[in-house]
Amino acid sequence: MKKRSLTTLLHGTPYFQPFLALLTFNSVIILFILITQSLLPPEIPLFFNKPSGDKQLAIKLYLTIPAFISLSISFVNLIIIKISTNKFLQQTLLGTSIAVTALSSITILKIFLLVANL
Where in the chain are the domains? Predict the structure, then answer.
């Protein structure tokens, strides 16, 4: 049995190229965080929904959480688009993926600029 890559399986999917760009962008954000670990303090404020103080702090590697969540949502939406034939649902899922990626990137950038030793 011939093995196929994931891009080969999903290539005929509607909106494949925008999703590929989103998946690539999220991967670049994750790599950026991993490469710039030396510029970050040991703990960063990440959990803003918790009370002020130590409960908001997380180790610096946790800054990748928003990007991983965005990457996961984009990938799941791409699979749903592959299955669905409803054009409105496909466009809505694409818009949701773009919004989640933008918001997670803004969050990561704001936190990075707040705490990084530049």
Answer: 18-115
DSSP 4: -
Report long-range pairs for 17-25 (Cβ below 8 Å, ≥24 apart).
18/94, 18/98, 19/74, 19/77, 19/78, 19/81, 19/94, 19/97, 22/70, 22/74, 22/97, 22/98, 22/101, 23/71, 23/74, 23/75, 23/78, 25/101, 25/105
Say if CB 54 and CB 66 are below 8 A apart. no
Residues 6+ apart with CB under 8 A from 66: 104, 107, 108
Query: Model confidence over 4-55: pLDDT tens digits?
Result: 665 666 667 778 889 889 989 999 999 999 999 998 889 888 887 788 888 8
Other beta carbons within 10 angstroms of residue 88's beta carbon come to 8
Predicted TM-score of the model (pTM): 0.82
Contact by Cβ (8 Å): 46, 28 = no
Q: What are phi and psi of 43, to 5 degrees?
A: -125, 145
Region class of 16: left (phi > 0), else alpha (psi between -120 and 50), else beta: alpha
